[in-house]
Structure formats: C-alpha cells, structure tokens
Amino acid sequence: MTSTREHRTRPEAASVAETLRVALEVALPTLAGGVMKRRPAAMALAGKLQFDRPAVRLLRRLRDRHHGRALKLRVPGRSVELALSGADVKRLLAGAPTPFSPSTVEKRAALGHFQPHGVLISDAADRPGRRRFTESVLDTGRPLHELATPFAHAIAEEAAVLPSEGSLDWDTFNVAWWRLVRRVVLGSGARDDTTLTDQLERLRLDANWAYLHPKRKQLREEFRRRLTEHLNRAEPGSLAAVIAAVGEDTAPDQVAHWLFAFDAAGMATYRTLALLASHPAEQERARADLGDTGDTEPAQLSYLRACVLDAVRLWPTTPMILRETTEETSWGPAGTTVLIFTPFFHRDPDLPYADRFEPDLWLDGRAAENPALVPFSAGPAICPGRDLVLFCASTMLANLLRHHRFEQASGPVLSPDRPLPATLDNFHLKLDLVG
C-alpha cells in the first residue's frame, strides 16, 4: 500500500534514450569527478568542457517535456527515479529518515570504506543516537560553536602562515586548511599529522569506486588507530574534548565523516575567495562588514557566510543527493533510489540569479523561498556541520581579507559581467595578493 504520508503524482517512465542521456550527461561526469574524493585531472577536464552545463540543459528539457513530474529511469534490476521539481526536492528531504532514507546502497558501499558506522549510513535503530551525538558535538543550529574562541585563534594562526605577498594557489591554501581542520577536530597535537589525512585520502579514493573496489581493511584499521589516539588525548579547545565529555562508541566513524566533509568545506572557501577576488564590489563589501572585529574574535560574519553559501550554490560540493525509500511510496517499491541533481536546481535557467554571484539572496529571504536551493541539503538529514563549516570558512576569509586584497590570476573567467562557469576546477585557480 502506498504511504499516506506523502501524496503526489506517480513518476513517468523515461524512454531508453532519455535514460541513456541522463547516464552519460549527468551521472557519468559526476562519478568521474570523484564523489568521495575529487580527482584533480578529472576536475580539470570537467572545467574545460563545462560538463554541468549540458546536464542542466538536459534536465530542463526533461522537466518541460514531462511537466515537472519525476522520471522512472530504465535501470536494469533497479528502481531509480529522478526528481525534476522543487516541490519533489522539498518532499524528499523533509521525509528523512523515513520513508526517504539518506542511507542508500551506493552510500553504504562507498562510505563503508572508511566509516562503516557513520550516521549517514546507519539503520533506523542506530541513527537517532548517532545523530544526537553528532549534533551535540558540532553544536548544530548555533552560529557560534561553544569553542568558537579557540577555533578563531587557530584559524588566525593558520591564516597568518599563508603568503602575505605574491600569489596564492590551491595547493598552498589546502595545506593550511588541513592544518586548521586537524586542530579544530583533534587539537594542536594533530596539526602536522599529515599521515592521518593522507590515509583518509587513500581510503576515500577507493570509496569513489564504491562496491567496485575491495576494502583495504588493514589501512582502515591503521587510520582508525591513529585517529583514536588523537581522540583519546581529548585536547582542550578541540572537538575531541567535547567528544570525550559526550561519549559515543562509534565516535571514530563520525569523526572520519567530519574530516571528509571539511575537505569539501576547504574547496568552498577557496572558491568563495576566488569569487570575491573577481567581484571587486562584493570584496569591498565583505571587507567593510568586518568592522572592528579582530583576527581572533569570533563573529557571525553574516555577509561572508552568505558568500560561502552562494559559492556552494554555484558549484555544489555534493552534486548528487540520494535517497532510498524504506517502504512503498508513490515513487515506487521499498528500496527505490531517488536522485536529486543539485546543479540543475541551483542553476535552473529560470532563476534570475542562476549564473551570477548573488550573496544577498541568502540574506533577503529569496533563498528561503526556494526549497530546491540546498547547499547543505535540508530537512532532518541536513548537514549537522553546516554552522561550524560556515564559521570556519567565513572566519578564514575574514582573516585573509582583513589584511589583503585579492585579484584572480589564472583559471576560468569569474566576472560579474558574464555568466559564471557551470563547472569550476578549484585545483588550478591562482589568486594574486594586491594589497
């Protein structure tokens, strides 16, 4: 029987040709870029060929052809649906964890490589406790974490290590970002433990292949042992100290996911800096909004947070949101996988701001009116680290902008006078420090 908790028109069946085009123009480029760990070479090609642009055009045609109704793709042996309307996005994300679970076959196969007990892929019995633990440690829902002051000190110190003249490239920024992440999550004792995050990177590269790559159990155990040693120190001023106070048997798996998510946060921060470097008016407004706050003083920095949110809207770090039905619904039988391709909804050509940098939409209510703008997902399974990520990203940007002005030195043109690229390769962006 179809669930009474959601009422909608049943999806239409896609043709074989439509299914093939979705596979080739939407799914394949997304997978090639690396879902769990971005592949720089693949991202360079994607940026050059602008893979997301034809994908958005295709889904727009499908939406118009099928009047916004979801499509049942012709996938042998699977029940797979593709969402094409904002109303369906809202319904799917609001329906977590039942009847639309964030734990899907694909996620369990991929995340199982490095966090088999993570909250995102937990079953109905284990998920509530793990989610409560995660929200408690990350201070979900609070713009300033209870440890915002020591975090702000760590951010200021790592920002100060970055170049003060010349240019800034991704590799240099990324080294500083990971030092910061290890300090925030595990304490200063982990600042230089690149082995830990290198091990996680190798596991994540395996996870890109999900069930097609054998699990490296020895490497995972070495990573877990090293991570647990840092957690056991419970260094004051770090999330590890909060974890020790709260307690959770699966803490290492949850922390592995936070480290994974912070990688995407670094990409979003650097992309935001590139947008500000190429949009002088927005850069000056961001600098003006810093006011008299010092480098180590925690602040909400609303405009900079809006800039980060819009960078993630423009180039989602999670391009494909997946849900799996836990019971029969109008989407299909239990076990149906539903796909939400976020670049389509974020860059819908019908949106007046689709291809431009528009931070104000996160401040004036326009974003809240559009349920399909989901830079950190939405609903009960919204990213629990959203507030902490926005704090770290905006505070890092504040430290950089307080002391320097930036201009874009290389990479695709990010101009306020032309549509922004649909796909952005952050790995080959370089910025000049000009003052």
From TrEMBL:
Cite the Pfam families for this sequence.
p450
Extract the InterPro entries matched here: Cyt_P450, Cyt_P450_sf, Cytochrome_P450_monoxygenase
- Membrane-spanning regions, if any? none
Coiled-coil stretches: none
Q: SUPFAM superfamilies attached here?
A: Cytochrome P450
Q: Which Gene3D superfamilies match?
A: Cytochrome P450 (1.10.630.10)
* Molecular function terms from GO: heme binding; iron ion binding; monooxygenase activity; oxidoreductase activity, acting on paired donors, with incorporation or reduction of molecular oxygen
Q: Of which family is this protein a member?
A: Belongs to the cytochrome P450 family.
The name on file for this protein is Cytochrome P450
